[in-house]
Amino acid sequence: MSALCVIPARGGSKRIPRKNVRPFAGRPMIAWSIETARASGLFDRVVVSTDDTEIAAVARESGAEVPFLRPAELANDIAGTDAVIGHALEWFAAQGETVEEFCCIYATAPFLCAEDLRRGLELLREREAATVFSVTSFPSTIFRALEIAGDGRLRMFWPENFTRRSQDLPAAYHDAAQFYWGHTRRYLLERRLFSTNSVPVVLPRHRVQDIDTPEDWALAENLFAALRQPDRGGVAV
After folding, report:
1. Distance from C-alpha of 193 to C-alpha of 190, rounded to nearest angstrom
2. What is the pLDDT of residues 16-62, one digit of tens each?
3. Helix or strand holding residue 5 (H, E)
4. At CA 62, angle to CA 214 and CA 17, rounded to 5?
């Protein structure tokens, strides 16, 4: 196949129990990622990698395939995305299926847009990148960041930047935790979603929200509702 979508979704999330299938804006959270992946028209197959039978059932109902259940050693708190993606790609190779390009999409990415996925694939090919993934800018400069020291007083990480204007400091970005494109053959050799040959798709901050705590979840639902109501000043996602 030309392009494979893999959506990792383990069952043992702790900070927000069952978050991959918990209702978000009226649908199971994972359904939003599956819908966007399918609607993009970029993938021959959209596959969910899970260890959980309930998640598998919801994924199938939402239009994805679940051709295997992930082994337990890849479903614990320390199993990383690289290991999960490697397992999925190796599983397809063992079935005799050649996957040229893959995209890992997180199950908790309701703000994902098909156009961003298309741009990511274009950059992967045009720039001959090892991987392409979504990023967004920090809302304020990290180079004037503070820490609370052991004595309870504030310290600057970089005191030399105290008198520098924020606009004179470099812009900084962080992973938007939505998607990662890669070339299968190259990836299976390096097993790294991030390298010095990674290229970004820069997303606006209003379409990026970590969903790791109940507070994050509530904020994401409010933002999602606002973005889907253009008549109230929002922008449809």
Report:
1. 9
2. 999 999 999 999 999 999 999 999 999 999 999 999 999 999 999 99
3. strand 3-8
4. 25
Please calculate the CA angle 180-45-236 and round it to the nearest 5 degrees.
60
Q: What is the model's pLDDT at position 180?
A: 98
Cβ neighbors of 79 (< 8 A, separation 6 or more) are: 10, 73
What would the two tokens of residue 199 be?
Answer: 């290229």
pLDDT, tens digit (0-9, with 9 covering 90-100), for 91-100:
999 999 999 9
| Cβ within 8 Å of residue 36, ≥6 positions away | 105, 109, 112, 113, 114, 117
Q: Which residues contact 83 (CB under 8 A, 6 or more apart)?
A: 74, 191
Handedness of CA 147, 151, 154, 159 (dihedral sign): negative
Report the alpha-carbon distance of residue 228 to residue 66 in Å, rounded. Answer: 30
Beta bridge partners of 132: 181, 199
Check residue 237 and give its pLDDT.
53
Question: In this structure, are residues 50 and 70 in contact, taking their beta carbons and an 8 Å threshold?
Answer: yes
* Domain covering 3-136+173-232 in this structure, CATH number: 3.90.550.10
Which residues have C-beta within 8 Å of that of residue 126, sequence separation ≥ 6?
A: none
Q: What is the DSSP letter of 71?
A: P
> Residue 11 has what DSSP assignment?
S
Tokens at 216, concatenated: 């994050």
d(CA 85, CA 91): 10
What are the structure tokens assigned to 40, written together?
């993009």
